[in-house]
Amino acid sequence: MAELEHTVRKGEAPALIWWCMFGGPFAWACDLGFSYVLEQHTCSTGHHYVLHVITVVCAIIALTGLAAGMAAYKRVPEEANDHGVRPMDRTHFQILFGMVFSIAFTIVIIAEAVPRWILHPCQ
């Protein structure tokens, strides 16, 4: 806990907090990009499972952002809240924001996977 507080007081954010905030959007971008690029390949070869593997891997990546946020949340002192003005209060808010972001982008990845399960890739 003291290490996190020292790092935050210096004005730096630990890697766990960065990954917590940007893991979900990164996973969604990878899912969208790789699914778009490999769509023609799955249609021509008939290997439709590739799109599903991409979805599962990207959803797991997004959930690692949630896990990173939970690990960072355990390090934050109990007196920190998301309404204060101290550096640890801002860190507390960033962690909560990142965990919600990770969950939201996991839901987006799953929502984008529904048409891939229902429709044929060649349509």
Secondary-structure blueprint of this entry?
Layout: H1 2-9, H2 15-45, H3 49-75, H4 87-118
Offer a concise description of the structure.
The chain is mostly helical and 123 residues long. The chain is built from four helices and no strands.
Structure notes:
With 123 residues, the chain is mainly alpha-helical. The protein has one domain. It is 80% helix and 0% strand. The protein has four helices and no strands. It has helices at residues 2-9, 15-45, 49-75, 87-118. α3 (49-75) packs antiparallel against α4 (87-118). The model has no long low-confidence stretch (mean pLDDT 84).
Low-confidence stretches: none
Radius of gyration: 18 Å
User: What number is the mean pLDDT?
Assistant: 84
Tell me the number of strands.
0
First-residue to last-residue Cα separation: 53 Å
Most strands sheet: none
Shape: elongated
Which sequence of SSEs, written as H and E, runs from N to C?
Answer: HHHH
Q: Oligomeric status of the shown chains? A: single chain
Number of helices: 4
Count of distinct structural domains: 1
Strand content: under 5%
Helix content: over 70%
The helix/strand class is mainly alpha
Task: Provide tags for this entry.
4 helices, mainly alpha, single chain, 80% helix, 123 residues
